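Researcher: Please translate sequence to structure tokens.
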Amino acid sequence: MLATQVFARFAHEVSQRALPPDVLHHTQRAVIDWYASLYPGLAMPAVQVLEATLAEDLDRGDARLALGRAATTRAAALIHGTAAHAAEVDDSFRDAMVHPGAATIAAALATAQTGKATGVDFLRAVVLGYEVSTRIGVVMGRPHYRFWHNTGTVGAFGAAAAAASLLRLHEDAYAQALALAATFTAGLQQAFRSETMAKPLHAGRAAEAGVLAAQLAAGGMRSSLDVLEGDSGLGHAMSDGPDWSQVGATLGEDFHITRLTFKNHIGCGHCFAAIDGALTLQQRHGLSHADIESVHLGVYRPTLDIAPHVDPQNADQARFSLHYMVATALVHGSVRLSAYEPARLRDPATRALMPRIRKALDPEVDAGFPGRRAARVTLTLRDGRVLTHLQLDRKGDPELPLSDAELEGKLIELAGPVIGEHEARALLARIWALTHTPHLPT
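Model: Translation complete:
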């Protein structure tokens, strides 16, 4: 069977049986994290420009934006997918180098609202989107990630898988939806190496593309089912011709949605191991930032490539600045939304520490990527001591997971200022009730 057919067969099987309780629980966790990412993203400039531009697709349609405005299905997917990635707080699956939730859940929610789906229908669609997209990302591998932004490319498959499930497509049409999504995949890393405003659009477009692909397949549109492994297919065009033969080997046994990373800091996740390592040394030895003479960070290659800004001039650049994020953590103890407010961006203590931070590729750390996101942190103190720590995992990785309570706290922290704490807690209750209610989260 071709890869698209393998996934279609799995989707059919999932539709015929109940998902394991632990899988449903992890899926609810993913939905909670998605909403925690969505609400702060709504205020980001990229989302505001997008919403204004899509005015003709708003105030009509059966879908609803998070703050209540009516929208067409594809417009809702596009706006919500963009917003969920805009604040750099969304989930990730390490081995696939992808943020699967932004596009998958945006597409699932918009399609579910339009189709009046139940809570379990919605959760099942989310599971399928995560399982399909992450496996494609794993096969495409690090060669794909060299130039492409997986959240835009691989994300389209997650959105298509979720939307196709909610549209109840039969096996062949489901496979066609994935094949059509392959023709829409896009998202260049160069788009956010210097200016990052367009980056969240990759997730939004992936969500929209997946919904459109599923809708077209439902209407009878067809494509080449060998679009992933064919001689001119995705694997050869956008990677190094990888082997697709085992893409479905663990489907239904190892659910990737149970092994997500949920962000414990705000900003580029490639910086988080360095942040955690620096904070570990600071806390272990009772240090103040004023005690530090210099910082050396040994990191893996994408940290250098994707978080390169040494002297960020705005919040967007600061979110992709290893220097700024580590210095902020050492000075203020954390990296929250407040780290990107104008006054904090100019904070004298943070700015004084940043020039004393050095970074370099660490071959041992780099060899572990993408399955492990580590960093080697060395602090040289003003009293002459040299402290070193190898941070193997990030808080929020499967090895150091956020608890349910911590995830709930994340949603209240990030959604509360937008919708109020009472409504944020009510939203949490609706998400936890999805397994036994016909109602969607919104």
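Researcher: Any highlights?
Model: Residues 119-145 form the longest helix (27 residues).
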